[in-house]
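Box 3.1 A note on notation
Throughout this textbook, protein chains are presented in two layers. The first layer is the amino acid sequence; the second is a token string describing backbone geometry. Keep the layers aligned when reading.
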Amino acid sequence: MVDIEEMCYLNWYYAGKDYPTNVLSFPFAPPMNVKSSLLGDIVICRQVIEHESNQINIPRYSRVHWAHIVIHGALHLLGYNHIYDTDALLMQKMEIIIIQLCGYKTCCYTTYK
């Protein structure tokens, strides 16, 4: 968890985007000859998530929205992305399936930029 200033910096430094985002994922590549099941790090910004919650009219501490953000970050670590429309649709479908497997009936669904 980072604040909005740190997320803005991370998004600028690593993605070249000069604004904060809700989640960033950083894959882990272990050194040669080291076995690891670690996928990487997921960095989340509470203030951005709360702002999004207001935008889509859901409670700012909505468990499904927070679950969605973590799942989204984890899917990035597994190689999913939303650069192209077809990839975004596949990623959204995976998010919804995983959200439902977690016991939620719906997803807070956000559109990717």
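Residues 85-101 form the longest helix (17 residues). The helical segments are 4-15, 46-55, 63-77, 85-101.
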